[in-house]
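Run log // design_07
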């Protein structure tokens, strides 16, 4: 390790998956890395803490899906074992159980998307409605995650997309929109068709096993981020909490030279932002340096979605058929999930009571309610899905309001999102809303973009070894062939037909 590298200072802003990923790799390379976190704990949205009664809680439950190749590689490197085994999931409406998903990797592998179609156990959805999704396969093939594909589909709403391709109203209402409400966190008329296709493909349609999921056996903060931050500090990284960034310092050479937190200034040879849209907009609003650039001013066109995370402790043991469950139809614009923490978390496995996590997305109509009202609604909804909850009493609870907490992939938002490189030569971006071509989503994408930002800093400073980023599993052969044919037809069409509207 060179003495010049030891003296290079990198400041990372935001201690979620992206920020921790960038910090860890850069610290291992020998850089002086300082990670600034506005909150009291590293972890961003998945930081865990204790209630007044000493019970563990966190800002919602986050799954780890089969395609999370880079996160699973990180877990192996850290030498920890935080996950459950692969679990089955259920879907409920006010009528009752609607669908159950198997563990897809345990079943004979069929060409995509036949496995998802054949093996998912729908209780009421007629076959004729399910078959109405077949024409949508063209859009799945046409959307190849390229910049051109994003621009073609981003100004179309998901609702328009499904209607255009002949998806039946019942299939949309009972299958696709519930996926949107808990996957993109908004109803179809408020979701970009491009983001919809990207999310559905990554989690469900690319390969049969993609929907298989494991869960953390406790809070992510305790099980993953705590040992991870210890490794970062052992590697020489410095993690500072309660540091809210207020501005940057730049010089005449188009370079960032410092990151400002109130009265503190952290000198930087390079800087990486790893915060959500809402946090980034707050930083931009108070930063004359960032406001001087149109790319950052345009972030005001982006938005977030409200999340409500509740945890309830009941006075008796209740049999919940599946540990993870998604629900739709209870509120027209809100999706919610509930989890049996006795089955998922080590802390509650032998408890005589039942512990349930219930999270609401696009929860703006609930945020202003009193805790008591929210708990009553949650209890009633749980009773609709699992009648045994009716006789149970809530003996403790936690309500966490997270306004504008998750990314809103609204129609037209792609043109305002930022790439990893910015107009400042040594300032790089990361997070689940950053434009990249990896193809991943959610926590995996955040982590991958953190590694990509670290690699850009290494390239800029010309010292260190880049992080190895595992690509998503390549498309199956028939999808590759279909995409090549589609691209050829599209190129021929461009040469002989006028371009009336979309690229």
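design_07 sequence
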């Amino acid at each position: 390790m060179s003495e010049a590298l030891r003296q290079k200072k990198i400041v990372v802003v935001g201690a979620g998956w992206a920020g921790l990923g960038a910090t860890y790799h850069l610290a291992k390379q020998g850089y002086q890395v300082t990670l600034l976190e506005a909150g009291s704990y590293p972890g961003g949205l998945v930081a865990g803490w204790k209630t007044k009664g000493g019970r563990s809680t966190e800002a919602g439950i986050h799954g780890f899906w089969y395609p999370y190749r880079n996160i699973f590689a990180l877990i192996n490197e850290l030498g920890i074992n935080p996950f459950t085994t692969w679990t089955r999931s259920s879907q409920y409406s006010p009528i009752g159980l609607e669908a159950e998903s198997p563990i897809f990797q345990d079943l004979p592998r069929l060409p995509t998307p036949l496995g998802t179609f054949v093996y998912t156990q729908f209780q009421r959805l007629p076959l004729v409605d399910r078959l109405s999704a077949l024409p949508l396969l063209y859009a799945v093939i046409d959307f190849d995650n390229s910049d051109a594909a994003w621009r073609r589909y981003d100004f179309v709403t998901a609702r328009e997309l499904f209607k255009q391709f002949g998806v039946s109203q019942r299939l949309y209402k009972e299958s696709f929109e519930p996926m949107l409400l808990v996957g993109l966190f908004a109803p179809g008329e408020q979701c970009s068709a491009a983001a919809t296709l990207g999310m559905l493909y990554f989690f469900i349609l690319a390969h049969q096993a993609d929907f298989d999921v494991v869960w953390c056996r406790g809070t992510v903060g305790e099980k993953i981020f705590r040992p991870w931050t210890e490794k970062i500090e052992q590697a020489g990284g410095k993690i500072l909490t309660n540091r809210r960034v207020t501005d940057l310092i730049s010089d005449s050479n188009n370079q960032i030279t410092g990151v400002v937190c109130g009265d503190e200034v952290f000198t930087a040879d390079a800087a990486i932002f790893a915060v959500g849209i809402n946090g980034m907009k707050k930083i931009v609003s108070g930063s004359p340096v960032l406001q001087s650039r149109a790319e950052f001013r345009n972030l005001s066109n982006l938005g977030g979605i409200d999340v409500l995370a509740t945890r309830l402790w009941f006075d008796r043991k209740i049999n919940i058929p599946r540990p993870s469950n998604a629900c739709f139809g209870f509120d027209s614009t809100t999706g919610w999930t509930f989890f049996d923490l006795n089955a998922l978390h080590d802390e509650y496995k032998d408890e005589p009571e039942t512990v349930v996590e219930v999270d609401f997305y696009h929860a703006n109509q609930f945020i202003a309610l009193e805790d008591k009202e929210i708990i009553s609604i949650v209890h009633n909804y749980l009773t609709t899905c699992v009648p045994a909850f009716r006789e149970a009493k809530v003996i403790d609870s936690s309500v966490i309001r997270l306004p504008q907490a998750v990314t809103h992939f609204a129609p037209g938002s792609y043109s305002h999102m930022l790439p990893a490189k910015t107009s400042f030569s040594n300032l790089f971006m990361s997070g689940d809303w950053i434009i990249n071509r990896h193809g991943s989503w959610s926590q995996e994408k955040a982590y991958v973009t953190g590694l990509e930002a670290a690699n850009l800093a290494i390239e800029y400073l010309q010292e260190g070894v880049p992080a190895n980023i595992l690509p998503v599993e390549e498309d199956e052969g028939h999808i590759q062939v279909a995409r090549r044919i589609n691209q050829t037809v599209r190129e021929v069409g461009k040469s002989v037909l006028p371009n009336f509207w979309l690229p």
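The chain is about 35% helix and 20% strand.
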